[in-house]
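Minutes, project check-in
Item: structure for the 335-residue chain
Input as provided by the requester:
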Amino acid sequence: MKVTRHWRLVLGLNVLLLAACGAAWAQTCYTAGDMEKATQTALTNTGQGYFDMVAHGDSASLRQNAIPSLAANFSGIEEAVKDNQAALSGAQGAARPPFLLKAEGATAQAHAEFLCGVFGAHGQTADSAVFMIPNLPPGSYAVVIMDARTAGSPYTVTFVLEQQGGDWKLGGLYIKPVQAAGHDGNWFAEQARAYKTKGQFHNAWFYYQEARDLLAPVSFMSTMVTDQLYDEAQNLRPADVPWGGSTTDLAAGAKTFKLTEMFPTVVGKELELVVKYQSADVSNTAAAFQDNTTVMKTLLAKVPELREAFAGIVARAVEPSGRDYGTMLEMKSIK
């Protein structure tokens, strides 16, 4: 999932803290500089301990230290640890300054928003962050981000912690590389600007997406940098690119395909464009393959600039049930 934009807020730290105390504002965030030194040390040490478990592939210990609801449904964490074990084996982790989040009230917040640090006249500042976490029950939480130094591409390993008694239990784990196809988010941002200058707005839009995704350790966090990238890209999204749950039509002769998603992804070491569309039935794989190739050919005929930005296309026909059938082709094979 990609990082979403949050509205700009013109708030100083004192105003932020006063608002957090009101009945209408039930979320408070403390940066490392705002919290007690003992709390900061406890969060950093806990994050380091959990990171070591991840690096050693020790899912059993992670589960023992998880909150009950996560421990009862731990398969996603186990899969994430297993999938990244080769990359993170022997990795060294360095903790960024942690964030302490306090959700007040008697019930879960449908859209808990935590504003961390000092905000200026133009929104976020270099050391601020915004976290948007849906359906968060009242309690004390923390976000600890670890930069993982590996033999290959660097990673971030992010832990969401929940305080239970005197312990900080694991409430969430997010592992992601900070590079795609050998490049970091700043490189993708520069390429996006170059595509924008050339008038290749499809390529620019997708590269801005990739830049924001790489520069945010988790999808529910935004920073000054990701907000600036959003501002640069907000008027670029082409009308034929589906967004926010909407669909767009791709006409291919007598047939019209309803596209539901388009986004960049890495396959192997190459950047590919994923195109998802609605399909009534994918059980006939030969027919689904033909539809997939038709979608690719039609899309490239309509937007030939995509050949310059991507190594290939992944087309996925998706049934209402969620079952899908995908086809990946290199650009040179799509004619």
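Outcome recorded: Residues 183-233 form one domain.
No further action items on this chain.
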